[in-house]
Specification:
This protein is of the alpha/beta class and 198 residues long. It is 43% helix and 12% strand. Strands 2-1-3-4-5 form a 5-stranded parallel beta sheet, sandwiched between helices. The longest helix is centred in the last third of the chain and has 17 residues, at 129-145. The chain is globular.
């Protein structure tokens, strides 16, 4: 039996969480199906961690009504990098107009509201320095907050496997296909999620 069976999991993110290039089907849907868990898929294409309007991660997170949540999984959005959002610094002030402040605010909010484990996940590797800087920032934030990270960016063997089946697994440098989600991304996500005590 899966460790996730019957657990309620929030997945907050943008196009990769949604399944932009896979007809709205992503690893979230496969995790739900394979593990018989309850998922809240709060994913909107093109949205950012940085809190600038009502589509941001933070604004949408605050509208989630569920109270009893077992696990919270958040995407490190590539949109913040491609839209040149300010990286910011790790601080106790949580400047949500920066990537650092938004990430820390989300972690703090989840801790206080749901008191459940927090997981952030990165995209697989793409040679794009602004996103690489975000990944490095997230790893520094992990040291402060003791969160979990599914670090697909830095996983060499994982990325080598993806490169061998790139045309099958990826619709473009950012968005997986259904096969990419099912055969590549979902097993990697499950590998980490199965290790979390809830």
């Amino acid at each position: 039996m899966s460790q996730l069976k019957g657990k309620k999991i929030i997945f907050l993110g943008s196009s990769v969480t949604y399944g932009y290039a896979a007809g709205g089907v992503s690893f979230v849907d496969y995790i739900k199906e394979r593990n018989e868990c309850i998922v809240i898929k709060e994913a909107v294409n093109g949205t950012t961690l940085v809190d600038e309007d009502d589509t941001s991660y933070i604004s949408r997170m605050k509208h989630i009504k569920d109270e009893d949540v077992d696990l919270f999984v958040c995407q490190l959005s590539t949109n913040d990098a491609t839209k040149n959002k300010k990286l910011g610094n790790i601080s106790d002030d949580f400047d949500t107009k920066t990537v650092a402040g938004a990430i820390e605010y989300i972690i703090d909010y989840v801790n206080k509201r749901w008191n459940c484990p927090v997981v952030f996940y990165t995209n697989p590797y793409i040679p794009y320095e602004p996103y690489q800087n975000m990944v490095h920032l997230l790893l520094d934030i992990q040291k402060k907050w003791n969160i979990y990270i599914v670090d697909m960016w830095n996983d060499v063997s994982f990325n080598e496997m993806g490169q061998k089946k790139w045309k099958e697994y990826m619709a473009d440098p950012i968005h997986p296909t259904k096969a990419g989600y099912l055969e590549w991304i979902t097993p990697k996500m499950e590998e980490i999620l199965y290790k979390i005590e809830m």
